[in-house]
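Today's session is about reading a structure prediction critically. Students often jump straight to the picture, but the first step is always the sequence itself: look for stretches that repeat, for charged clusters, for runs of hydrophobic residues. Only then move on to the predicted structure, which in these notes is written as discrete structure tokens rather than atom positions. Here is the chain we will use throughout the hour.
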Amino acid sequence: MTDQAFTKLAEIWPLCGEASQAIYTATRPFVNPIINETGLTQPRVVHTLLLARAVEPAPISPERIWRRYPYGTQAGWVQPMVTLAERQLLEAAGDGTYRLSPGGRAITTRILKEFYAGLTGIEKSIGTVYPAADVDRLRALLDQIVTAGLKAPIDLAGLTDSHGLAPHGEATALVRIDQALDDLNAFRDDAHLAAWRPLGVTGQAWELFTFLWRGEVKNVEEMTEKAAARGHTREIYQSALGDLIGRGWVHAASESAFEVTEVGRQIREEAEAATDRNFYTPWLVLSETDRNDMRDLLARLKLALAQAEEAVPA
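Below is the predicted structure for this chain, in token form.
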């Protein structure tokens, strides 16, 4: 299958993100009260706690999380773990790694229980506009892609960790849809990492390169401001820029602006094409009819969830 043939699949992927966001928004009334009650409102804390559960029996560490998110600093993941350890929700396992404590297990169990219950209620509430047969059909289609993705010949660190939270037992179809959408988002990250990591650049250099390629920044100062949450200093991005210039991927367009060279453009476009090949090849388990159905089902699910949210009393 040629890269051009992935175009139709690429039209479906944004709908996955929109459906996932709609689920997230619709379930906040069930999850946020627990987060606020337990005081787990700091950035990355809940994500880290749930990930610690997902990777069991292995320990969690900043290095493990950084494998999926290499654009920021590993240090940025240290503080959430320290905070959770101080709250006795994680237990130190040695060498900077942690495991879920009994208290952490209790909170994650409560969060997941309320989240699943909320989704189950939502699934029932949208039944008149989004019948159970449609929910199950979408679940089956997404599960096929995830199952195929788990066999992809690339590093699946993100997908494997995400899939560790897959519900067991008699979870409803909408719960499984949410998990599959999370898994596909992680798999997309894996697909992109597999496309550029062989080039031997750092995460911060690759992200700077990408933003220059897209025209979103034109110098180190703008990058430092745009990516402030990544935790890197101006000096780090200056070094990354020097690496990109040394590779011939970027050059100065003026005294204060840099742009991607023709060689750089080809490198970045090939990485994007490789990402699509990595990501969409497992989708070929679906027939054209399946893919058309999935496009329609995702679009309708987003609308049904929005209507359900509007119907909730203030």
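Discussion point for the tutorial: The chain is about 65% helix and 5% strand.
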